[in-house]
Protein: Sodium:calcium exchanger
Amino acid sequence: MNVWIWGLVLLLAVSSAKWGSGKLAKPLKKLSKQWGFSKVAAASLLALVTASPEVGISTVSAIRSVSDIGLGNMLGSNIIALPLIMTTAYIASRKSFKTNGKEHQQHLENKFFALPKSSVYVLTVPYLLIVGLVAVLTIPEDWRGLQPVDGWIILAAFFIYLGQALWRGKGKGEEVDWNKKEIFLALSGVLAVVFGAYFTVRAAEHIIDYIGISLVIGGLFITSTLSTVPEVFKTWKVVSSGQPTAGSTSVIGDKAITMTLGFFPLAIVTTPISNFQIYWVNIVFVALIPAVFSLLVIYKKETGLKLKDILILNSLYILYLVIILGVIGVY
Structure:
C-alpha cells in the first residue's frame, strides 16, 4: 500500500481512538459527580479516558512485537504534552468567562493563568514519583529494560496513584440520571479506541519502514505528536468554556496513567532498551518538564502560570529536541 495511504490511515486511526475516548468522558464525569470527587480528582479519573489511546497503542505494539513504537509513543507524548497543553490553555483563557467574574478579569489584566496548588500536590508530585520508579526499574545496568516483574510493580503504582487522587477532597455525591444512549456511545467509544490503536500501530510500522528510521524514533516523533494533537482541541474547547482547571490539569493525570498502564503491556512481553542513550535522555525530560512546571505554578503568591512561564516550558521542549536530535545524529 502506498505510504501516503498509510499516512491517511494513521490520521484516521488516531482520530478514531480520540473520538472513542471522548465518548467515554461523559459517563466518567457523571460518575465523578455521583461519587462526590473534587475537580482535580475528577480530572485524574478523566485521565483514564484521555490516556486510553496511548495505552491502546502500547498494548497493540506489544502484541505485534514492535514494542519500541509503544515505548517511543509514551515517552514522546509525555514530553510534548505539558508544554503544548499549557500553551493552548493559556491562550484559550485570554478571554472573559461568564462564570468566573471579577477574579478572572484580574487574571486577564495581569496576564495570569490561575491553577490550584492541588494540581501540583495531587497530580504532579505523584506523577514524578512514578517517573522515578520507572527510572529505578529500567535504567540500572542489571535491571535495564522492561521485564514482567516491572510491569506488576508499575501496575501497583497506578492503583496507588489513582486511589490517592480520587479520595483526596472527596465530598458528598449527587444524584445523576443515566440513559441507554450514553451507555451505547460509551461502548462504541471502547470499540473505536481499540480500532484506532490497532491501525495506528499498523500504519506507523509501514511509515517508519518507508522512511527508514528506528521504531523508537518513529514512536517518539510520529505517533506521539499525532496522538497529542486531538488533546489540543479538547483543551481549547474546555478552557474556553470557562473550565481552566479541568481543561489543563487532566493532562498530568493522563501522562501518569500513560507511564503506568502504558508500560504494563510492554513489560509483560519483555522490552529491551535498544538505545540506552536515547532512553535516558527521554526519561530525564519526562521528569524535568513537570518538575519545572510544579515550581512555576507554586513559587508565586497566587498559584498559576504567566506568559514567561509558558515560554520557559516551551524552551525546555526545544532544548529536548536539540539534545535528542544530536544524540540521533551520533548514531
Observations:
- Strands lie at 112-114, 304-306.
- Residues 3-35 form the longest helix (33 residues).
- The mean pLDDT is 83.
- The two ends are 30 Å apart (CA to CA).
